[in-house]
Amino acid sequence: MANAWSNWSGFVKAAPKLIATPTDAGELAELVRSAPGPLRVAGAGHSFTPLVQSDGTIVSLEKIEGLVSHDPATNRARVGAGTRLGALMHILQGIGQGLPNMGDIDRQAIGGALGTATHGSGPTLGAYHTQLETVQFVDGQGKLREYSRAGDQDMIHATGVALGAFGVLTEVTMNNIPTYRLRRRKRALPIGDMLRDFQTMMAAHRSAEFYYIPFSGYAQFIASDLSDAAPTPRPTEDDEEGLATLRKLRTALRWLPWLRRALIKGAVKKVPAEDYVQDWLNVYASDRRTKFNEMEYHLPFEEGPKALAEIIELTEKHFPEVYFPMEVRSVAPDDFWLSPFHKRLTCSIAIHHDAANDPLPFMRAAEPIFLKYGGRPHWGKMHSLKAADFRKLYPRWDEAMAVRRDIDPENRFVSPYMAGLFGIEPGPFGIQR
User: Fold this and answer.
1) Is-contact 324 353, C-beta < 8 A?
2) Residues in a beta bridge with 136
3) What is the helix (H) or strand (E) element at residue 292, kind and residue range?
4) What is the pTM of this model?
5) Could you tell me the strand order of the sheet in which 132-138 lies?
6) Are 66 and 49 in contact (CB under 8 A)?
7) Which of 28, 64, 309, 396 could form a disulfide with 22 if both were Cys (CB 3.0 to 4.6 A apart)?
8) pLDDT of residue 427
9) CA torsion sign, 189 to 190 to 191 to 197?
């Protein structure tokens, strides 16, 4: 019976010859040298692009996880690349450290989150890869390499966002901060007000984001700031119940859009505001059980409101089946060569579609809007771009590709999908340069 792999949403599937779970760097190195190619790496499968898809070997890093070492003086921690973010939060809290920022999902492995430039929100807060102090990985010839920010800054910047194609991560050292508390507030605002005051509101807090509820006219604005106050109870999450209600209204009132809009608007306005204080690890992540597929584009910060207004108009005119909220965040600029936040303050806009529905018509219609405003796609979320497009979007693209060739000269990590991303033509014996 063939091996079977699929991503979290079930949209991407693969039937590789081998699924391997090495327990250490030595076993991983042997796999890279001898396993059927192409060899791709799976974290938690929470990407929506075919990054992991391979008919050769899929390597799971789930056994290369946990705390390796830590330094209380510098707030650094070295961990296995397969460590899930949910586990990492508790590991760090236990040693008095905290991640400076997080997204709202904690199921990803840190290696996958780094490799796809996964991020939280905040105009002065970078994505996970900006915390990198050292990286250790197995290259395409099965050799163990290690680079540090202090001695090899260019290599850290070249390989920090690597899509699992610049070697297979084994361990990383993260620059963290002392453990801390956040005051988190949430309230409903008219989307017109949110778009008008976008730059002011997103910059007024350490971390701010909002979710637009399609067909409601309202957004849920969420702000988080550092606090020394005593913890207070976190309100019970009702996101899943809210999604179920939105789905029912979508289905039942398909032919009565005015009634659907009125009911959703009324329901969103009635959602009670939140205001609580908790340790950082009890604030960021939310429960996400309803499966979806996602597209996220990273735009110049000032272009965000215009792009979002067009996406909302597109959705509400032509895609009444969409009910998932749209997520809007900001991310600080950085110097990583393949980071979507390279050298610019960013507004990130994510759109979602129920995994039970075909996402492609909606995503294909939305993508030109994102591109019109200079968007760069999230590496792990749905897009249609290829190497020629990326060369225009990333100033150091060619340099990054040269580093990748040095790390993987025989293209062991290059599947057909990756070949399209990198502009590599297939040769007679598989993927060749």
Assistant:
1) yes
2) 146, 171
3) strand 292-300
4) 0.95
5) 67-71, 76-80, 168-175, 132-138, 144-148
6) no
7) 28
8) 46
9) negative
